[in-house]
Amino acid sequence: MRAPSSREAALGEVVLAVEDVLLTFGGVRALAGVSFDIRKGEIRAIIGPNGAGKTSMLNVVNGFYQPDSGRITFKGEVRRSMRPYMAAHGGIARTFQNLALFRGMTTLDNILAGRTLKMHRGFFWQLLRYGPAMREEVENRRRVEEIIDFLEIAAIRKIPVGRLPYGLQKRVELGRALAMEPDLLLLDEPMAGMNLEEKEDMSRFIIDVNQQYGTTIALIEHDMGVVMDLSDRVVVLDYGRKIADAAPEDVKRDKNVIRAYLGEAYVGQD
Amino acid sequence: MPSIEPSLDTLPKLLLHNARVFGDRTAMRQKDLGIWQAWTWAQMLEEIRAFSVGLAELGLKRGDKFTIIGANRPRLYWAMCAGQALGAVPVPVYADAVADEMAFVLAHAEVMLGVVEDQEQVDKVIAVSERLPHLHQLIYDEPRGLKDYDHSRLMAFSDVQSIGRKKLAADPDCQRRWEAGIAAGKGSDLSVILYTSGTTGRSKGVMLTFANTIISARNANAFDHLDENEEVIAYLPLAWVGDYIFSYVQAYTAGYCVNCPETPDTVVADRREIGTTYAFAPPRVYENVLTLTTVRMADAGVVKRKMFEFFIAHAGRWGEKILDGAKVPLGARFLYAIGNMFVYGPLMNQFGLSRLRVAYTAGEAIGPEIFRFWRGMGLNLKQLYGQTEASVYVTAQPDGQIYAETVGEASPDVEIKISDGGEVMFRSPGVFAGYYKDPERTAEVLTADGWVHTGDAGFFDPKTGQLRIIDRAKDVGRLKDGTVFAPKYIENKLKFFPNIREAVAVGAGRDFVCAMINIDLTAVGSWAERNNVAYASYQELAANPRVYDMIAGHVDEVNKSLAGEDIMSGAQIKRFLILHKELDPDDGELTRTQKLRRGHIIDRYAPLVEAFYNGATEAKIATEVTFEDGHKGVIAARLAIRDLKPYPASAAAMERAA
């Protein structure tokens, strides 16, 4: 468990704020005026029942979806909406609920792909494999190797990811996101489909990323135990609305949250 | 008794010596961030000196005990030598030991300082720290995750080295004093305490002097002509005497290079990159590689599979003879050369064995099939028999005189005798100095005139003149009718089938022999895949009737082979069952070196043993299991028991009985 009071003091200024975001698909209101913020250095959880709008929220944050109205403030810049390239250049990296890896490529190449934005030499320099391009490649490879070491995946370095078990693929995807050296890391259900041991490993990696690199993390997760252990603050969505936004232990006791998850009958019980 | 010159009678002295003679040669490598980092003997001396002086500044002094916990990393090996340079005694502990076992050893040895690998080990030691009144300082190699820990008694390895380097720079006399401290060490000094996990009871701390280990290591180097050109890979537990001698003392005496793998999972790939020339492994390593190969070949295309089968059969017939330099027809040699090009060579290369000159197997009996397979492939695989109490070497097989059933002849300077009770005893310069703080148990094992009881029953094979080990002396029992019952002998026969990972034979004082079996998940899992047997867990696979049928076939073959041996023919297996869980050291069923703890298993599975002998066809069992983090759970199961028909004893055996 983490000590909330000392963490609270350590949290920095707001890095990302969404205000009054409205997102509709035809008649469906995926997000109906949601506001919340993410502060520097924290682990922020977004939870909610199925169809609550959690993934939509992440997609708005990194620009996959354009909200119908509302504002997004990222690193002090106010925008009506994000674009994926803006998010990437601005230092937002993410992983996906249903893995999006290059299955035929090795672990190493997949993570190296995460360094694309850090490679500045053009095609012809790269062809030469000499001078600055070479130095750049060496530097990038070094960073990738650090990540491989960090995530303890040295044994699968040269194995095509399509042949790896699901839990390890998830870890490679996290590695690729880390390769961007993001300021804000968005994790969409990082533990989905994992067994207990894999979940414990992944939790440890998330905490380590947060502590060692100081990366701000926003994650969607269904496993309540994981959320309670990992996160500093939790925002709860239900039917596209925000119904709670507080520290994990307060969220657990919140009437609205209990109603959304368990039903009216459980409200007031312990 | 052979002696060693006083200038080279301790490991720190050998370090100084090697830094002079082999200064620019590579002493150690470790793969880090995907690249092999190397240290020459001179660089290694500098690293060890800095750490050692740092340790002295932290208060480590002559006679103090300190622990080493972690995987095979250069810094942990350096820490051993750094402490020994000050006259302190390292007490390495198995890195996978659960906290309670670790606490016992650390408290018993009164360690006052620990050098550990990472956060996991720091956590484990901190968890039991209130039982360790002597411990006042922990040093870690890998800083990850430890940033926010209270550093009042915790320090990074590199920080200790900087303390040492600063001290060395500030005080010009410091290096001379450090070297004088090394010169003051003697061969008869206690150099290390290695706790043996022991198949019964609490572990015992085996005390070895510098002379014990250095003489044994030198003899071993001479026996196999090992010199500074060898490359080995260090991957066995640091706390095991085998690794201590092989990756440390032999390396220092011969001057060869020790390579540390990137992680424990990458050993095969790392070994392949290094191309080791000398290797030491328990049989299960050779078994696993063979099982893996067979399983993969079963999934290969027809052409490849046929080619593999053809050439492996050819190697089985001629390979060993070619290896031993016997007479072999030209045609067979030619075909072998082709096989070498297409099958043996690539396969050996795949597992990083191409450059291997000498490979040993020890610790347990190896299956004759497995042994011959590797030798047929051209691997100079030999057996040795050793003990922690002997600084490893008791017997070893010389090149060219290799037999699957024997463990070799007495190693140089070792005397062996068989006691009247059939127990193997030895006397050698490697004989240990006693168990730490346990004169009683020392006296049970070590006689006044220097002989050591090995606890193993064995005899000298009349055909080959080499030693043959049958079983643990105390485990050899008799059935009710007086038939000799050697459980391990039977278990080994069972375990030679790739589908059987572990087996426990029971029968002492009973009417007949029964066996509890663990299936091998890799082998049986692959069989299940090919035969459309669906399963969700080990337990479900183990209970499958078709798996029972297959194992029954194996047990039947063992019975057939037992029937052919005169003294064993009465000890055939009449009933068996397949256990619902794998035997595990965390549950105390195996030792950390994967040996059966028979007494404990029989107590734990008492209801099963009872069911064997009351005729039941099913038995219920509920066992407590310990998970890796120490918390406990219960697994319950209902296990089927199968009956088998014994074979009549062979004609020869009958005659002798009549």
How would you describe this protein?
Chain A has 270 residues and is α/β, with parallel strands linked by helices. Chain A has 11 helices and 10 strands. Chain A has helices spanning 4-10, 54-61, 84-89, 107-113, 123-128, 132-150, 166-179, 196-212, 224-230, 248-253, 255-262, and strands at residues 14-25, 28-39, 43-47, 69-74, 77-79, 92-95, 184-188, 216-220, 233-238, 241-246. In chain A, the strands form 2 sheets. A 6-stranded mixed β-sheet of chain A has the order 6-7-8-3-9-10, with helices on both faces. A 4-stranded antiparallel β-sheet of chain A has the order 2-1-4-5, covered by helices on one side. With 658 residues, chain B is α/β, with parallel strands linked by helices. Helices cover 40% and strands 22% of the residues of chain B. In chain B, the strands form 8 sheets. Chain B has a 5-stranded parallel β-sheet, sandwiched between helices. The longest helix of chain B is centred in the middle third of the chain and has 22 residues, at 302-323. Chain B is globular. Chain B starts with 10 loop residues before the first helix and ends with a helix. The model of chain B is unreliable at 652-658 (pLDDT under 50). The chains are: A alpha/beta (270), B alpha/beta (658). At the A-B interface, α6 and α8 of A face loops of B.
Kindly summarize this structure in a few lines.
The complex is a heterodimer of chains A (270) and B (658). Chain A has 270 residues and is of the alpha/beta class. Chain A is built from 11 helices and 10 strands.
| Uncertain runs of chain B | 652-658
Distance between the termini of chain B: 50 Å
CATH architecture of the largest domain in chain A: 3-Layer(aba) Sandwich
The CA-CA distance between the termini of chain A, in Å, is 21 Å
SSE ordering of chain A: HEEEHEEHEHHHHEHEHEEHH
CATH superfamily of the largest domain in chain A: P-loop containing nucleotide triphosphate hydrolases
The first-level CATH class of the largest domain in chain B is given as: Alpha Beta
Output the radius of gyration of chain A. Answer: 19 Å
Fold-level CATH name of the largest domain in chain B: Rossmann fold
How much helical structure, as a percent, in the residues of chain A? 25-40%
The average pLDDT of chain A is: 86
Domain count of chain A = 2
What coarse outline of chain B follows from CA principal-axis ratios?
globular
Number of domains of chain B: 3
* Fraction in beta strands of chain B: 15-25%
